[in-house]
Automatic annotation (TrEMBL):
Subcellular location, principal: membrane
Membrane-topology descriptor: Single-pass type II membrane protein
SUPFAM superfamilies in the record: C-type lectin-like
PROSITE patterns: C_TYPE_LECTIN_2
Signal peptide: 1-17
Protein name stated in the entry: C-type lectin domain-containing protein
Keywords: Signal
Domain C-type lectin: start-end pairs: 49-168
Amino acid sequence: LLLVLCVLLAAALIALGVLSEFLPLICDLYFNFFIDGTCPKCEEGWELHRGNCYYFSTNKSTWNQSRDDCRSKGGDLSISSTLPVQSFLELRLRQNMNEDDDKFWIGLTDSKEEGKWLWVDDSVQHFSQNKEFPEGEDCVVMGKKREADDLKCWFDVFCTKSYKSTCEKSV
């Protein structure tokens, strides 16, 4: 019995050693981020993805109110300018949709200059030539087309409408 316990203890120590060697790889693979020998953590209610923390608010409010809410939490509306972030948001928003017409504010607007789409960090969003948003609707939500399962759709809507929102901040 003592021999079995010694073998189990040795195996556990070896496993811990192997795990500690692979922690940076695991952290980089899943979170694409590594700080001071540990994986970063987000505050309660926030989720880690690629070095940023995301918060999914189910409270419905206008674009400006949603942005103020994100800022009060130390972040801003989400920037969905890369495919990995877009895919992550699609998955998480789908889990927070209670109705098919639920939509979520993201941090994209052309309110400063019609047709010039800027993220909340002032980076420009370029669209392909066939992508046109109607004039006058200055803020963007992410949602689902009527009968489609694909949630990777962006819609420009009046900023004064009330929707759920996504916030983002650095770790």
